[in-house]
Design a protein that fits this description.
By secondary structure, this protein is an alpha+beta fold. The protein contains 11 helices and 12 strands. It has one domain (51-281). A hairpin with a 5-residue loop joins β4 (125-127) and β5. The protein starts with 5 loop residues before the first strand and ends in an 11-residue tail after the last helix. This is Plasmid replication protein RepL domain-containing protein.
């Protein structure tokens, strides 16, 4: 029972005493806006476009407090082996042995053992009743999600992550990308203080010092060099940076390459794949741009 009741203000008649909550007209309007975005995100997995896995931004942020950035860089690589049922493997076989991870992690046996052990201790990986390694869906999964999780969802693009591996990027450097996943906003893949804000006029981009604080760097100058180390080759053959550094007013802000990571639903996400936008990440781009 609650103390709430639905009352006809013109007559004073109590229409219903079985009321557990209420919203003002402004609250209802705000709720409907958020709900509409959640529903769009809920169906974004139904796509014939690029393949991707999902990550929960809240739990990813918590995970970084427990695992070093190098190991988290390997978690990115594992996304390319994640199946719809939560198991890890390839189209030919499931991962049942530690050595099965060698190719996807691109490291030798001794390092694979260390990585798998650390991720099992942290609860990121487990082994099911059939003896197959699985990813904990609390952090990452592939396919359908509950609509309530849509707002916290970040998409990791399969082809992009593979391109980073093919480019020989070190897991320690990829840990930087993983660390920034919980801060990516819908608006232009900006790294922001308020990643769940839909209103572009209210988005609060991080400057380089803010990003340095997230990465636990003492000086902002270190951020630019670290971000520029992460490169790959796009499907069209262009050499790309994983991050772009753009000027908004007097500040320098960071954007993440949408070939690697996206927040928007698949239909809207395509807007970030225009040639003009991707040119922001191009290495040795034309001087006229």
């Amino acid at each position: 029972m609650t103390n709430l009741a639905l009352v006809d203000t013109s007559t004073g008649e109590v229409i219903s005493s079985d009321v557990v909550s209420y919203r003002t007209s402004k609250q209802q309007e705000a709720y409907q806006g958020v709900r509409a975005h959640q529903l769009k995100e809920k169906h974004s997995f139904r796509t014939t476009g690029d393949k991707f896995t999902n990550g929960n931004m809240d739990t990813i942020r918590q995970l970084r407090r427990e695992i070093d950035d190098t190991t988290l860089g390997y978690v990115l690589y594992l996304q390319t082996a994640l199946q719809y049922d939560g198991t890890l493997g390839t189209s030919k076989r499931a991962f049942t042995k530690v050595k099965d991870f060698e190719a996807v992690l691109n490291v030798k046996a001794l390092q694979v053992k260390k990585v798998v052990k650390a991720l099992r201790i942290a609860g990121v990986l487990n082994v099911n009743d059939e003896g197959v390694y699985c990813m904990n869906p609390t952090y990452h999964w592939k396919g359908k999600m509950h609509s309530s999780d849509a707002q916290k969802n970040v998409k990791l693009m399969d082809a992009g992550i593979k391109a980073l591996r093919d480019a020989g990027m070190k897991a320690k450097d990829l840990g930087v990308l993983y660390a920034l996943l919980p801060y990516i906003n819908y608006s232009k893949n900006l790294v922001t203080h308020n990643p769940y804000e839909y209103d572009v006029n209210k988005v609060q981009p991080m400057n380089l010092q803010d990003v340095a604080d997230v990465l636990n760097y003492e000086h902002a100058q270190r951020v630019s060099g670290k971000l520029r180390k992460i490169t790959f080759t796009a499907p069209d053959g262009r050499a790309m940076y994983a991050f772009g550094i753009v000027s908004i007013g007097k500040e320098s802000n960071v954007i993440v390459n949408p070939l690697l990571v996206r927040r928007l639903a698949e239909g809207k996400g395509q807007e970030l794949l225009s040639n003009d936008f991707l040119t922001l990440f191009q290495i040795n781009r034309p001087k006229s741009i």
